[in-house]
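hi!! sorry for the late reply, been swamped w classes. u asked for the two structures so here they r. pasted raw, havent cleaned anything up. first the sequence of the first protein and right below it the tokens
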Amino acid sequence: ELKLDMQRLAPRVSYLTQVTADVIKQFNSKKRSRNLLDFSDYEHFALRVLMNDDGTPSEIADMYRQQFEEILVDEYQDTNRVQEKILSCIKRGNESDGNLFMVGDVKQSIYKFRLARPDLFLEKYNTYSMDGEECQRIDLHKNFRSRSEVVDTVNRIFTKIMDIKLGGIAYDESASLRACAAFPSNKECKSELILMEKPERDTGISAKA
């Protein structure tokens, strides 16, 4: 039955695919006619320059690979597949002898609507180890921005509500923060949790029974 459904849907899916391709082609044509580029264009044009048709790095990618001594990527949890491919074209070596250094926190991933893939970060987080000779992970726990009252409260809350199902990572001892900033002692500094009730929506419609 499943195969039969797929056979029946195939022509419709093919048609929708063609419509999508036509819209993209027309949209790109309109942008080019007005000399416009968006951020996605920059990514895909860069990839077109750095990658051959067979998916291998181009000569230009080889030139950049020799030019860059180190590649440092911040907010890696918000990287998408295109950006990951760009990096793979210009980085040297592999995980054991490469020149790519990534910093990120999957708990701060907020750009899935831009096609960010936090699973790219999680894949490396789960593969690399603290004492790994080939793929080393460095956990950054120390917090120098906030008082211990704030850090302890954040840890207490997220330990209860964040797990692998919710955020892709467990908020355990390895994910918790450590308060390391030296603040003047102040007994009045306490964390406060303010709960706000969302008011019911006023539709402006009244009714009488």
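now the second protein. again sequence first, tokens right under
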Amino acid sequence: GTLTEPSLDTHSVDPTVLQLAASLDRESQHPLSRALVAANTLPLLAVEDMKSFPGLGLEGRVQGRLLRLGQPRFVLFAPETATDATLVLGDAGLLLASFIMDEQLRADAASTLAALHDANIASELLSGDQPERVDAIAAQLTLTRWQGRQLPADKLARLKQLHAEGHCV
């Protein structure tokens, strides 16, 4: 979401399932969450027992159902899940919907990284997305150092490591 602008193609998404997901996501400031909520056209539903799991997703009770929205590995209780989905919605580990976000580079992403490079400032991409998605974005930006499937704690650990190595972060 820092280097890209996400959008959701709603043509293949059931509006009531999108309503459930958007209801869970309404308070999140994550760019993927904002895109999902913006795509919803139905009234948002009440959510109880809302919990946030940074870097993984959200959990809350909607219409009596305990739902999870987020990364497939979090929602489906499986470390490795074969899906191209950016986000999934699940009920007790069962898949209800997959949301594939289209992410386009922000208009200024390439020029910003080029300016950093020209100033001899190294750039590295740390993302919570699946490695395949991160690789595609890194290739578009000609970044050679990147890591996918990073939780917020992983990103912070990398920054601390760079700082410990004497880099100005």
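hope this helps!! also noticed smth abt the second:
The longest strand covers residues 48-53.
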